[in-house]
Design a protein that fits this description.
128 residues; mainly alpha; 6 helices; 88% helix; disordered N terminus
């Protein structure tokens, strides 16, 4: 898998960023309906959840490695941004579903996941 190879080097955040893009295809197959669609939907949901939780853990490991004075403030800011991002994603997902249906939601997952890859890779390259 060519996309996983660059993500496998470097930080866990880079690997998680690449891993968020992969479930979009499985989620799109969920639109097939029936047993195959249900299996694809379950698999895509599981993969997306694992990728997002892995990213959350990787980021919080970095936060909790800091001094105790900075840790609580930064964790508060991080969780606030995570909440705002989740709310924005939910709103965008509802809008995409209302406008383009399930395929639009899957495309949104792919686009938002892919949009994070260059940012995370660029940050990783600056630190190298």
């Amino acid at each position: 898998m060519a996309a996983a190879r660059p993500g496998s080097r470097g930080s866990p955040r880079r690997r998680c960023s690449f891993a968020v893009v992969a479930p979009a295809g499985a989620l799109a197959l969920g639109g097939l309906g029936g047993a195959p669609g249900l299996v694809a939907l379950a698999l895509g949901t599981l993969l997306l959840d694992v990728a997002m939780q892995s990213g959350m853990v990787a980021n919080q490991v970095r936060i909790f490695a800091l001094s105790s004075e900075a840790r609580s403030r930064l964790n508060t800011a991080y969780m606030t941004c995570a909440f705002i991002g989740g709310a924005a994603g939910s709103s965008l997902g509802a809008l995409a579903y209302a406008t383009w249906g399930w395929a639009g939601v899957c495309a949104l997952v792919a686009v938002l996941g892919a949009a994070s890859v260059p940012v995370v890779v660029r940050r990783g390259l600056r630190r190298s």
